[in-house]
Structures are given as C-alpha cells and as structure tokens.
C-alpha cells in the first residue's frame, strides 16, 4: 500500500510531476486502484446561494466587487429555492450538494442562520452537505457541524509565492486558519486550487506541497483550471493545456492516495477525451450540473453520456469517508 505522507519536498513532487506520461499515469492508476473503486466518480452539484459583490479582490473571480463582469449581485436565495435545487440535483444523480456564498467571511446573524437551515435541509434529503462561505471562526464551524455539515470547501488557490499576485485582501495564513477551524470541529476539508493563473510548474508543485502538509490530507481536492472571465484581471490568460492538467491530477493522486481528486472548473472547455484522461490519471469527482457558481458547466446529459461511454458509475455516498486517512 502506498503510504500517506505529509513530508513531500517540492523537489520530489516536481520529479513525479515531470515523469514520462506513461510512467506517471501507471503510478497514479496504481495508487487509485489501491484506494478507490476506479470505476466510480463522485457527483457534486454546486449552487451559488449568494452571488456577487464580494469585497475580496481574487483576480480570477467574476464575483469580486473589484471587477466589472457579467455577474450582477443578487440577494441571498431563500431556503425553499435552495432545497428545491438540491432535490433536483438529487433526482439527477448527485450525492453531494455544495452551497457557495460570495462572502469574505461569515458574519453571525440571519444570513448565517439561513445557511445553517439550508444545511439541515440538504441533510434531511439524504445528501452530503458542503458549503464554501469564505473565512470562518471555530465557533461558526461548530455551528455548521451541529447543523450536520459534512464538508467545507476552502481553497489555497495557488502557491504561497504566487498568491500575492492573485489576492491581496486576505493572506495565505488566513486561509490556513480557516482550514484549521474546520478540521478541529471534525468537518471534512475540501481544499485545492486553480491552475492557469500565470504560475510556474514549481508554483503548482509548491501548492501541492501545502496541500499534503495538512493532517489529515484534505478529504477532497478540487483542481480547477482557470475559467478566464471577461472583466477580471486574468481575462486574457491562455487556456491550460489538457496534458498539463493531467500531470497535475496524476501528481495529486499519487501524493494524496485517499483524497478524492476533483476535476473541477474548466471542464466545459475540455474535450470528452481530455476529461477521460484526467479520470484515468486519478480524478474521481466532478461538479455535476449545468452551472458552476456563475459560469456554465458541462450539462448533465453530457456527463451521463461521458460516464456511460467509459463504463463509469456514480460513487455512492457510503463510500465517502469523513477523513482522508
Ligand atoms: N467566497 C468563498 C471563498 O473564496 O472561499 C467561496 C466561493 S469561491 C468562488 C470558491 C473557489 O472557486 C475559489 O477559491 C476558487 O478556487 C474557485 N474559483 C473562483 N473563480 C474561479 C474561476 N474563474 N476559475 C476557476 N476557479 C475559480
Ligand atoms: C472549487 O474549487 N471550485 C468551485 C467550488 N470549489 C466552489 C467553484 C468554481 C467556480 C468557477 C467560476 C464560477 O462559476 O463562478
Ligand atoms: Fe469573493 Fe470567493 Fe470570489 Fe474571492 S473567490 S472574490 S472570496 S467569492
């Protein structure tokens, strides 16, 4: 069995990342088979419950108030609207429902209380509940846990070194504190990042090193490729080459054997074959639904066809463990 390690060096990670592709994929598939049923893919549906007007200045994000994009700020959705969307997601085959808010941080009060109610409602439907609400305190994490939250998504986004070029309104350290608050309450951590933001390959390896330093490893790790949205500072970034994404996913799979590696944003811009190659490299989770937060995703019929043609099946919720170790 491949050991779960937290002490990978950037040099070791880079060596894996740069292996000849057949060797890299062979190793990644070995790790994948040892730890998962390699014909299963987790289906998670996203919903933006509070869209736009975010005070943070994340350079990639169409929801930042600092950028003028297609996103119009919206009032927070009602509990009924969210639970209706969760029911539709469940009927379409999703097992995890992830609610996102364009907040810098959670503030106590009616909006947070509404999120807690949404979590209870999603759990009552028999789905896994995930939220991504920005920074949270230990006390807020405790309330989310009591409401039944399974997972909290909070990404590192990039390497500590590249981070300063992407966001200046909150620090890397702030992110690590939120992740600790989540972990300490026994909520599973979903934590990954984005490639295609002008970072170097070493930056990608440094981000992976930060992810594997976490104890336990994240329960799931979304690997997003930048969706370059008009009006954001990163609007003109070239699209990430699919083989670079495959390398990133395979490396993540080898480093984090028990983590669900999620082929996340950017899928709509990829061919069916490139997506399958990511799955052959160890990706075993996707965002499933016509919309991500504010940008389109592959539609559900495309995804059902993709799974069917490859002989893959949805991962049942039981096979989702609370911890990656
Ligand atoms: N406001 C909260 C936060 O930042 O933690 C939650 C929502 S935020 C949209 C969640 C994650 O989506 C970000 O950390 C980032 O990794 C990802 N994301 C946002 N915009 C993206 C884009 N244009 N392309 C790829 N990933 C993106
Ligand atoms: C994550 O890593 N990717 C998702 C989820 N976590 C919240 C968000 C992707 C957002 C893509 C741009 C948009 O649709 O707004
Ligand atoms: Fe706000 Fe999150 Fe977008 Fe950053 S990524 S601008 S915190 S919604």
Give a verbal description of the structure.
The structure is a single chain. The chain is α/β, with parallel strands linked by helices. The chain has a single domain, classed as Alpha-Beta Barrel (TIM Barrel). The chain is built from eleven helices and ten strands. Strands 1, 2, 3, 4, 5, 6, 7, 8, 9 and 10 form a ten-stranded parallel β-sheet that branches. Strand 3, helix 5 and strand 4 form a beta-alpha-beta unit. Helix 1 crosses helix 8. It is globular and about 55 Å long. The C terminus is likely disordered. The structure holds S-adenosylmethionine, 6-(5-methyl-2-OXO-imidazolidin-4-yl)-hexanoic acid (DTB) and iron/sulfur cluster. Iron/sulfur cluster (SF4) binds next to loops. 6-(5-methyl-2-OXO-imidazolidin-4-yl)-hexanoic acid (DTB) binds next to strand 7.
Overall CATH architecture: Alpha-Beta Barrel
Q: What is the name of the CATH topology?
A: TIM Barrel
Gap from first CA to last CA = 13 Å
The CATH homologous superfamily is termed Aldolase class I
Structural class: alpha/beta
CATH class: Alpha Beta
Number of helices: 11
Give the number of DSSP strands. Answer: 10
Instruction: Please trace the helix and strand order, writing H or E for each element.
Output: HHEHEHEHEHHEEHEHEHEHE
Cα gyration radius (Å): 18 Å
The hetero compounds bound to this protein are: S-adenosylmethionine, 6-(5-methyl-2-OXO-imidazolidin-4-yl)-hexanoic acid, iron/sulfur cluster
State the share of residues found in helices, binned by percent: 25-40%
> Runs with pLDDT <50, length 5+?
319-323
Question: How many structural domains?
Answer: 1
Mean pLDDT: 94
Beta-strand residue fraction: 5-15%
Shape descriptor reads globular
Biggest beta sheet attributes? 10 strands, parallel
